[in-house]
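Blinded run. Sample ID left blank on purpose so nobody reads anything into the name before looking at the predicted structure. Input follows.
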Amino acid sequence: MILTTPLAALGRVVLEALAGIGRIAIFAAQVVSHILRPPFYPREFLNAILQIGWFSLPVVGLTALFTGGALALQIYAGGARYGAEAAVPAITAIGMVRELGPVLGGLMVAARVTSSIAAEIGTMKVTEQIDALVTLSTNPLKYLAVPRVVAAVLVVPVLVAVGDSIGIAGGWLVGVNQLGFNSSTYIKNTVDFLQFWDIGSGLVKGAAFGFIIALMGVYHGMNSGRGAQGVGAATKSAVVAASVLILAANFLLTRVFFGS
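Blinded prediction complete.
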């Protein structure tokens, strides 16, 4: 009995994790199945675009700006050891559009948006507003989940594109003003090195991250516990789950796009 107790505990953890993955997968399938079914709620959709996209621009832009500048400094410091300082514009650009732009942008939006969605919907559940929607013959999944998920899938790639541009601009500012690069040469090297799929892969990642961000917020909000403590726990779980899934999805997508 003593020897089997740790194994039993491990088994319970694994089974609970698998059950959680199954619940999320079923919830995601339900959301996707309702996307093209009427009724539609354009007002909720437009509000979600405003909340997820427009209000996230400052944090995404500032994150990308400082990341691009720091990346240029690090690449220059490393390249100087091997006489490869000229590679700074190219590597900064590809690092931003392939990885840092989508991942850091996704994580910043997750921190801001996933928590907001989970807290809002969790509060609606606690105050029985979701039950009121059902009473009014309104499907909560259609009204609360679908507009946010669709808006996030469409808007996060735009945020990624803006973040990529600002991050490359941050690298350019540091390269020209601190590292002694010629401005036109820096820009030419950046444009010549980037390929279409470098940019496209980052935008595809942004769409996948947007789906994860909104889905985790809605799922944990609609399954939150009662009271302020339940809403707080749901908000924390939503942000953690979204962040981990973004990193895992980034690895899988990178493996698919660029793996040998």
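Unblinding after everyone has recorded impressions. The mean pLDDT is 88.
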